[in-house]
Amino acid sequence: MFGEGVILAGIRFSVVDLMKAGAALEAKIKSLGVSQIELHDEVSTYEQSVSHSDKGYIGEYFHRTLNTLPPSMFQGITCRSTDGKVVATSAVRCDDISGWDLDRYIREFWMRAYRTDDGEPVLLSDAAVPFAKDVTGSIAYIGDTFVSSEFRANNLAAYIVRLCLIIANTKWRPVYTYGWMARHHAFEKALFLRWGYTTCYAGGLTWERPPANKAYEDLCFLGCTPAGIAQLLKRPLDIGLDEA
Q: Is 145 within 8 Å of 108 (Cβ atoms)?
């Protein structure tokens, strides 16, 4: 996965640097009650593990009825507790969207994958996602993040997403990594910073025809450039709390 290291924002990180950051996050995650971290190259095995969690299903960005994601485009993570229960999940996909920008890609994907209350394809407003314009090339997306209720007080999700950010940016070296977050998480708790993202846009999605799932109506857009990943590699456990 780590190859010969990476160059991010002009800074070279050796294989040892990458392994140290990954090992630090692995140790932290396991210190929070996780006994096993499972990496999945196949969506099918990830889906099977997720089915044994309280989440129970995988989201639209990774679901096999909506996507074809070979191992060259996908990485899933599931975490098991000491009793074998799947207590946390997250996943990464990387797409080469050359010829489009991220604005166009988001519009196309949501229109195809999501439906309104009336069963029609959703439709973003013309003014939606302007911050995604002109972002093109290899783009990574992190989502499907879930933590069981009994593990949510210890910032486990933050460390798992940080591990995903490192995996994505060493496996694929994307020009940009993005995700979505509920508004109350992004602003009341500033979770996007804990998770390792450097950018958060409120009102990430504005609608002409909104999705039936009301949780998707007012999501915040999260983004991270290679410069942000470089900083994360230097301080992988720094989530802004004294415990880091």
A: no
